Amino acid sequence: MPVLHGTLTAADGALQAILIELTRMDVARRRRTGSPVPLSVTVAALIDTGSEITCIDPSIVSQLGLIPKNLGPTNVPAAGGFQFNWLYDVNLTIPHPFAPAAQQLVIPVLEVAEVPLNARGCDTLIGRDVLASCVLIYDGVGNSFTLTY
Question: What strands, in cross-sheet order, belong to the sheet with 3-7?
Answer without folding.
Answer: 3-7, 144-148, 135-139
